[in-house]
Write a structure and sequence with these properties.
By secondary structure, the protein is an alpha/beta fold. Helices cover 48% and strands 15% of the residues. The protein has a 5-stranded parallel β-sheet with strand order 7-2-1-8-9, sandwiched between helices. A 4-stranded antiparallel β-sheet has the order 4-5-3-6. The protein has a two-stranded antiparallel sheet with strand order 10-11. The chain is globular. It starts with a strand and ends with a strand. Its EC number is 2.3.1.39.
Length: 314
C-alpha cells in the first residue's frame, strides 16, 4: 500500500466543520486555537456557527486551511505514512504545511493575504465559475471560443475526466453554458464563488500577492507536495513563483492523481469537511482506494478499514 494525503480546496467548507473534534479532542482543539491566534480570527465562531463570513473568500480560505491542518495534526499518527501530498488549489497550502515546506506562521499569513486579495478582485470585477460534467474536450474548447465573443471564459480546473470547471465574466460564462446546453450537456452547476479563480481575471490579486510570497520562508520539506500548476512536485527555488502562477492558471488535479498512480500510489486519504477530492480520484483512477478524515467517526472508520495500528499496518 502506497498512500497520498489529499487536502480540500475552497468550496469544501461547511458550517459546523471541525466542531465535534473541537469538543472531544484536545489535540485538535489546541491546533485549531493556535491557528485562530495566528490568524487573529475567531475560527470556532466562523466555522461552527451559521456565520456568513464562512461563505466569503476572505474568511473561507484561512478557515479551511486551518481546519485541514488541525485534522492532519490530530489524525496523522494514527494513519499509514504518506509518500506524497496533494491539495486542490487552496488545499496546496494545507499540503505545504503538512509537508514542512511552509511554517504554520508563514503559511497562515499567506493564506489570509491570499483570501483578502482575491476577495478584493471579486468585489471590483465579479466573475463566475461553473462545473461542467461529462463534456468532451472539443465541446469545452468550442464553448470557451464562443464565450470569448461575449466576454471572457477559460478552463479553470481540470478536475477529472468527467469534471471540468470554467471561470469567466458573467457574459462569457452565459455564452459558454448556452452552447454546451445545445450540445446536450445536461449537468452544469454554478459554484458559490464571486470570482473567476485560476484565470487571468485574478491577475491583480496575483500581482499584489507576490510581495507576500517574497517575504515568506520556504523549506525543502519532508514529503513531496505536488503542484496543480506544473503537474510536478514543488521545488524550493520555484515555490513562490508557482504559487503566484497558480492564481491565474488552470489546475490539473486529475493529471497529478494519474502521475501518483503511475508511481504506485493506490490509496488516497482526504483531510477536509467533504469527500470532494476522494470522488475526483475515483473518477480518475477507479481502482484507487479512497478515504476521508472530517470528524472522529470518519477517522475511526478510515483507521479500521485500512487495518492500521499506531500508523502501521497490522
Amino acid at each position: 500500500m502506497q498512500v497520498a494525503y489529499l487536502f480540500s480546496g475552497q468550496g469544501a467548507e461547511r458550517t459546523g466543520m471541525g466542531a465535534e473534534f473541537y469538543q472531544t479532542d484536545p489535540q485538535f482543539r489546541s491546533a485549531f486555537d493556535q491557528a485562530s491566534r495566528l490568524l487573529d480570527l475567531d475560527l470556532p465562531q466562523i466555522c461552527f456557527n451559521a456565520d456568513e463570513r464562512l461563505q466569503t473568500t476572505e474568511y473561507a480560505q484561512p478557515a479551511l486551511v486551518a481546519l485541514s491542518w488541525a485534522l492532519y495534526q490530530t489524525s496523522q499518527a494514527q494513519l499509514p505514512p504518506a509518500s506524497a501530498l496533494l491539495g486542490l488549489s487552496l488545499g496546496e497550502y494545507s499540503a505545504l504545511l503538512a509537508g514542512g515546506q511552509l511554517s504554520l506562521v508563514d503559511g497562515l499569513a499567506l493564506v489570509k493575504a491570499r483570501g483578502r486579495l482575491m476577495a478584493q478582485v471579486c468585489q471590483a470585477a465579479p466573475g463566475e465559475m461553473v462545473v461542467v460534467l461529462k463534456a468532451d474536450a472539443a465541446q469545452i474548447a468550442t464553448a470557451c471560443e464562443l464565450g470569448q465573443q461575449s466576454g471572457f471564459v477559460a478552463v479553470a480546473n481540470y478536475n477529472s475526466a468527467q469534471q471540468t470547471v470554467l471561470g469567466g465574466t458573467p457574459a462569457g460564462i452565459a455564452a459558454a453554458v448556452a452552447y454546451l446546453r445545445t450540445q446536450g450537456v445536461k449537468r452544469i452547476l454554478p459554484l458559490a464563488v464571486s470570482g473567476a479563480f485560476h484565470t487571468p481575471l485574478m491577475q491583480p490579486a496575483a500581482t499584489a500577492f507576490v510581495p507576500y510570497l517574497t517575504q515568506s520562508r520556504f523549506s525543502a520539506g519532508t514529503l513531496p507536495v505536488w503542484s496543480n500548476t506544473t503537474k510536478l512536485p514543488f521545488t524550493t527555488a520555484t515555490l513562490a513563483t508557482t504559487l503566484a502562477q497558480q492564481m491565474v492558471q488552470p489546475t490539473y488535479f486529475a493529471a497529478c492523481v494519474t502521475q501518483l498512480a503511475l508511481q504506485g500510489v493506490d490509496t488516497f486519504i482526504e483531510f477536509g469537511p467533504a469527500p470532494i477530492l476522494a470522488r475526483l480520484v475515483k473518477q480518475t483512477i477507479p481502482t484507487a482506494k479512497v478515504y476521508q478524515v472530517a470528524d472522529p467517526q470518519t477517522l475511526a472508520a478510515t483507521v479500521a478499514e485500512l487495518g492500521v495500528t499506531n500508523g502501521s499496518k497490522r
